[in-house]
Structure of Cytochrome P450:
Amino acid sequence: MLQVYGSPMRLWLFHIPAIFVSDPDDVQMLLSKNLEKHETYRFLAHLIGDGLITADNYRWKINRRIISPAFNLNTLADNFLKSFNNQNEKLVRKLKKHCDDNKLFDISEYIDSTSFSTICETAMDYKDDEEIEFLEFKAALIKAADLIAERFYKIWLHSDFVFKLYTRIIGMSNIFEKAKALPKTILRKKYQNQRLNSNTHTKDETNDGKKPECIVDILYKLYDNKHFLTEKELTDEILTLIFAGSETTAIAISFTLMMLAMRPDVQAKVHEELDVVFGSNKNPPTAKELYQLKFLEQCIKETLRRFIVVPLILRQTDEDLKLKSGEIIPAGSAIVMSIGSIHLNERTYPNPYTWNPNNFDDDSIAKRHPGTFLPFSGGSRMCVGNKYALLSIKTQLSTLLRNYRFTTTSCEEDIKLKLDVIVRSANGYRIMLHSRH
Ligand code: HEM
């Protein structure tokens, strides 16, 4: 609709009167303003408290400075790649039962589960992913996230009183507490140990490459007690990372596999690249090898363009804001930045609904406005996990594709999308697996 009527456009997002913006210059200007999140983000606070996604600007500034260093490229390679590889090897083993049986199956349940275990391991060093307490935690988190999405779209659930009543009627009044129980217990132990051992840590220590560390431990090493998060803040932040980092990456992986299964010509090119980089080497990928997988990276980026995991970014403004056209967004407005309209604009991407990794070759990227590809948002509140996401997606896809070839009977037109807070396939990711060896 934005492509027909242009940007900006005044519209109702369900019940919210909002200004929709999809011009890349305007979106970049708005993202650079560090506007407060729209009030509907507070629905997430039941689950993730005041973590980075929900925090107001004052709290966010302090916590983002503490958390960002855990996501730099060296930290990722030194600490998390080993966990990614361990989880991916388990995944390859689990998938063996589907190999060469020529039956379609939905791969997303395996991918979802691997992404969830991976983020729990890298965030808080939790590895017992077959334990009943872990499975209960996962189930509760999924239910809690569904309930939040339902609240967002049903205006009558916006009132705190009605929502509380509703959760009681449907027997879910303690779902948020259930979803927080396991991380709370783990982090309480870590917090207490840290207080006992605080004298042994010095600020700005770096990992000397011996034992990989989880995000919580990295944060403890980088900060002394005076500047650190409280136990509640730490729990909120870790839950935020688990919530924001598991399903999003899993969806991107599942869609990429689905598209490669539909496009054997593109998949053959990925296999060729993997053969050149890895040859007969059967070891897990290193950061250097992953860096060389340029064509696979194009496929991942094209998936993030075509299947926009987070399609809308909501903010609110308490001052008048002038757009490129001279039009004013009045103070007090809700602003909806439509990443979907930017990624699917045919003036930027010819045939925007066709998945085409060549959209991300060097020449095509160089010709485009930088604000035309924003899967992780932009500005200072850009996704803190973007490098983590790209590395974990690439590690998992390269491992799967070194072992298997994927086919499907579906085509791109068969994919139906389901939108709640994020976008996923409504009809699953049904593929067949074939051995490459
Ligand atoms: C394909 C995967 C991912 C996509 C598409 C994605 C997308 C996004 C987007 C669009 C935002 C901005 C939301 C807004 O402002 O309303 C965001 C924020 C955020 N993401 Fe991601 N994300 C992904 C993976 C991850 C991962 C793996 C993590 C953590 C390990 C993560 C943690 C966060 C956090 C904490 C924020 C809030 C940042 C802040 O406000 O400072 N995300 N993400």
